[in-house]
Amino acid sequence: MSSQEDELRPVTALFADVVGSTRLAERLTPAEAKALIGECVNQMSRAVHEYGGAVQAYMGDGICAYFGVPTAREDDPERAARAALRIVEVVREYAADVERAWGIEGFDLRVGINTGQAAVGLVGAVDEQTVAYGDPVNVAARLQSSAEPGTIVVGEQAAHRLSHRFVLEPLGSLAIRGRENEVEVHRLVGAREQEEDHPLVPIVGRDAEVERIRLAADELVRGRGQVVLVVGDAGIGKTRLLEELRAIVGDDAVWLEGRCLSYGDGVPDVVHLETGHQPIYEEHQHNVQYEAEQPERQHIESYRPARKERVDEGVGDSEQEEDDDARLEVVDPDTW
């Protein structure tokens, strides 16, 4: 690795591998094995790219993919989890095609995911490649080999990052060959229909911002619509501030929450509206104003205020310094 290019950064590694490929290659001609396994690997790769990952290596019957290399994002573990679920889904469908066309039963794969700090840099004498080195990547490969066919196994750090949005089943401790300490592992089952609630941590050093949203909440309860835009870097405390707003409002207003995927090569644009307890799109569809000819995925795009009053202030939480570079934007509804 070139020391000039090396850096330490969080990386989520995903390994996926076809089960029993050696036995398949024995039964098939080389051309047949290449066609069957090659198409499966192609489908795995497409799933990774859909969610913004990068395939670092093709291993004949599997792939090694990174989320966080070359571009790091705060939701890399979630992207990897969704890519893994997509891989299992498409390979399950592909297995049915394989059985019909080739008469081969039980075609399947294993997936392993792990997150942690890795050394990232360039290797290669002629064609340099960016690779990640370190314990998290090694463990991800071992998790993949330990998984039951058709399942996804995730490491402890990845599980911690995913638990609020995904269903995980604890599998206990796993001894990793060549590693002194065991690893707590989980099976990734699927995405939660609703995010799991968690206790709110105190907000420290953000009295001005909390007061601003409290005033907006008071006006809202009085019947005067408000729009508050919170803008800032990843990890600066935007979500925590919105949680505070929701706690302030309580049961005095209907809470509609929309989420758009931040990734999406080939992933349909979806806006999911929900309350804290159930989807509310049908119940409150009349509250969402849009032009009839617009497709459903463009509904939220109609919320475009004509003028914004911007107030430059910091937004953060107990783990963030007060001088973080962030801003709070407030939109006056009278200017709509």
Quick tags:
single chain; 336 residues; alpha+beta; Alpha-Beta Plaits; 2 domains; three-stranded antiparallel beta sheet; 7 helices
Commentary on this structure:
With 336 residues, the protein is an alpha+beta fold. It folds into 2 domains: 7-191, Nucleotide cyclase, GGDEF domain (Alpha-Beta Plaits, 2-Layer Sandwich); 207-335, no CATH class. The protein has helices at 21-27, 30-50, 76-102, 135-146, 156-162, 207-221, 238-249; strands at residues 7-18, 54-58, 62-67, 109-123, 129-133, 152-154, 166-174, 183-191, 227-232, 257-259, 272-274, 309-311, 326-331. The strands form 3 sheets. Strands 1, 2, 3, 4, 5, 6, 7 and 8 form an 8-stranded mixed β-sheet that branches. A 3-stranded antiparallel β-sheet has the order 9-13-12, with helices on one face. A hairpin with a 3-residue loop joins strand 2 and strand 3. The protein is elongated. Residues 266-333 have low confidence and may be disordered.
